[in-house]
TrEMBL record:
Pfam families: CBS. InterPro entries: CBS_dom (IPR000644), CBS_dom_sf (IPR046342), CBSX3_CBS_dom (IPR044725), Diverse_CBS-Domain (IPR051257). It comes from Devosia limi DSM 17137. Gene3D superfamilies: CBS-domain (3.10.580.10). It comes from the Bacteria. The lineage of its organism: Bacteria, Pseudomonadati, Pseudomonadota, Alphaproteobacteria, Hyphomicrobiales. This is CBS domain-containing protein. Residues 8-70, 76-132 form the CBS domain. PROSITE patterns: CBS (PS51371). Keywords: CBS domain.
Length: 142
């Protein structure tokens, strides 16, 4: 199973912000769209980072009174791990586990085309296991 299967079922909407925004902008976006991370893009649309709830909480722990005024660029995670539509879901799971990340942008030719979360991956794996169990039950019954 490939990442493309997840994108086909969930869609390809990705919420982004420029690195010049503030943590307050990011918090508003996360709350508005009920998401756990936002991809940070450069003026040309390229991925320059990702900002997750975890990144925000760390800043709040360091600077409770002024964290929301900080620029995203100073708080985001750089060196984002990405995948493509053709990446096997098992590879995404392995990378998410190894690097302790919960969101992975999907990019092709340096263009952002989607995002998958650990929840998306787990949901898809559960669906696959349920389908396999059904097929086995049908095989045994016949």
């Amino acid at each position: 199973m490939l990442v493309d299967a997840i994108l086909q079922s969930k869609g390809v909407v990705v919420h982004t912000l420029p690195e010049t925004g503030t943590l307050a902008d990011a918090v508003a976006m996360l709350n508005t769209h009920n998401i756990g991370a936002v991809v940070i893009t450069a003026a040309g649309g390229g991925i320059v980072g990702i900002l997750s709830e975890r990144d925000i909480v760390r800043q709040l722990g360091k600077n409770p009174g002024g964290a929301l005024d900080l620029p995203i660029a100073s708080c985001m995670t750089r060196g984002v791990f990405t995948c493509s539509r053709d990446t096997p879901i098992n590879d995404v799971m392995e990378r998410m586990t190894r690097y302790r990340i919960r969101h992975m942008p999907v990019a092709e030719d340096n263009a952002l085309i989607g995002i998958v979360s650990i929840g998306d991956v787990v949901k898809r794996k559960i669906e696959d296991v349920e389908q396999e169990a059904l097929a086995l039950r049908e095989y045994i019954a016949s």
